[in-house]
Amino acid sequence: MPEIPEMETYRALLAQRILHTPIVAADVQREKSINVPVDAFRRRVEGRTIVGIARRAKHLLFHLDSGDVLLLHLMLGGWMFYGTESEKPDRTTQVTLSFGERSLYFIGLRLGYLHLWSSSEAEARLAELGPEPLELSFTEAELRRTIGRKRTVLKPTMTDQKTIAGIGNCYADEICFDAGILPIRKIESLSEEEFGKLYGSMRSVLLEAIRFGGYMENPLFPGDALTGGFDSRCAVYDRGGEPCVRCGSPLVQEELASRKVFYCTRCQR
């Protein structure tokens, strides 16, 4: 599932390509992927331009010149492709926004969605999300205040979107490995020093992953050399049984709260 780095990569690359270009057609192949009748969706979207693209947690917000917002959550299995019909991957699309010769294809929106809201409605839909871990206001002290008193396990807490927004399975494991902390630790057992390491790793891992285009490998457009560049740099995620990049010990893969978790028992304590 896309997390902060993947959605930041999409945001930056799409801003270079579709901003201020009229949407000449909106095609909905799966009505369940949107939240209004197809005719209403097309009427409010076609002829409009996207004047800004923002990210909040794992969502993208496409701000239209009408004041409406297209709120995207790709969820598990969702991704996007921008290009011509002949360049499009041979995959089923649920929604397509055409900008003329090229279109933005929303693929795999079986669990995800592209909802159309007014600006205030979109804001209300995101109101329960926790703080953004890369915001300057999210300091080490704020991290302690946010999770320090919880009597829960570290990884499920980090991936709870109402606690901290935008971190999911992949980067929770990567952050814990970088900090040298087991993701299965109880938060109440963390020392002040470990909170400091966790905070530093949260920023450094997410920023590095953004720089390398996240871990999802499907290119956004033909010739896209950025998207998915972090996949080969993942130290533990989806590498169960492989040797640890630090000590060579086999990495552990387990299930925690119905999710996979990966870690090194020698490098993480």
Automatic annotation (TrEMBL):
Formamidopyrimidine-DNA glycosylase catalytic domain residues: 2-112
UniProt xrefs under InterPro entries: FPG_cat, FPG_N, H2TH_FPG, Ribosomal_uS13-like_H2TH, Znf_DNA_glyclase/AP_lyase, Znf_FPG/IleRS
EC annotation from Swiss-Prot or TrEMBL: 3.2.2.23, 4.2.99.18
Domain FPG-type: 235-269
Superkingdom of origin organism: Bacteria
Reactions the enzyme catalyzes: Hydrolysis of DNA containing ring-opened 7-methylguanine residues, releasing 2,6-diamino-4-hydroxy-5-(N-methyl)formamidopyrimidine
PANTHER family reported for this sequence: FORMAMIDOPYRIMIDINE-DNA GLYCOSYLASE
Family: Belongs to the FPG family.
Listed name of the protein: Formamidopyrimidine-DNA glycosylase
